[in-house]
UniProtKB/TrEMBL annotation:
<keyword id="KW-0575">Peroxidase</keyword>
<protein>
    <submittedName>
        <fullName>Uncharacterized peroxidase-related enzyme</fullName>
    </submittedName>
</protein>
<dbReference type="Pfam" id="PF02627">
    <property type="entry name" value="CMD"/>
</dbReference>
<dbReference type="GO" id="GO:0051920">
    <property type="term" value="F:peroxiredoxin activity"/>
</dbReference>
<dbReference type="InterPro" id="IPR003779">
    <property type="entry name" value="CMD-like"/>
</dbReference>
<dbReference type="InterPro" id="IPR029032">
    <property type="entry name" value="AhpD-like"/>
</dbReference>
<keyword id="KW-0560">Oxidoreductase</keyword>
<feature type="domain" description="Carboxymuconolactone decarboxylase-like">
    <location>
        <begin position="43"/>
        <end position="108"/>
    </location>
</feature>
<dbReference type="InterPro" id="IPR004675">
    <property type="entry name" value="AhpD_core"/>
</dbReference>
Length: 182
């Protein structure tokens, strides 16, 4: 277990203090994982710019990818955060568990997306050709394929930071997938 602290506003650079202030205004708090990025003078700003960049994926589609990737990477912090965000995007608890498992029986297009995100993550970028073909056949474009892979990378960064630092989860903790009946 790591001994990483979650830095306070007073412990970070002036640039990161301004970002903390903006996060507090937007979210009402600074998530511990974001605060952990602020150990670096540049990583928090760089990550937020990357994470909030334009994409062909909708907010709901982004959550599909975030949940599938975080499950493969076994990141309880990101699973917990994206379970909460997934609910805000209209997914039910049951749908979120299914998305974490890499499928979506309730929506054929989202199913293809979840399967791709899981497959790309499990295979470290070497997606199975049939999974890619199914993704494209579901109505996604080659641009959407690239955007999905970029999002896999985005989420993997946060998964790895939490896996290394083990900072406390400050969202309702997601239930283990193994206890479900999917």
């Amino acid at each position: 277990m790591s001994t990483f602290n979650v830095p306070t506003r007073e412990e970070v650079s002036a640039n990161n203090q301004a970002i903390f202030d903006n996060l507090n205004k937007a979210l009402g708090f600074v998530p511990n994982l974001y605060a952990t990025y602020a150990h670096s003078d540049t990583a928090l700003e760089n990550y937020l710019n990357f994470s909030n960049a334009k994409t062909s994926l909708s907010a709901k589609e982004k959550e599909v990818v975030n949940l599938a990737v975080s499950q493969v990477n076994e990141c309880i912090y990101c699973l917990s955060a994206h379970t909460a965000i997934g609910k805000m995007n209209g997914f039910t608890d049951e749908q979120i568990l299914e998305l974490r498992a890499g499928s979506a029986s309730f929506d054929a297009k989202l199913d293809a997306l979840a399967k791709l995100a899981k497959n790309v993550t499990e295979n470290r970028g070497r997606a199975d050709q049939q999974v890619v073909e199914n993704f494209l056949a579901a109505g996604y474009t080659k641009g959407s394929l690239i955007d999905t892979i970029v999002l896999v990378g985005d989420k993997t960064i946060s998964n790895y930071i939490h896996s290394t630092t083990q900072v406390p989860v400050d969202f309702p903790v997601a239930q283990p997938l193994e206890t479900t009946t999917i």
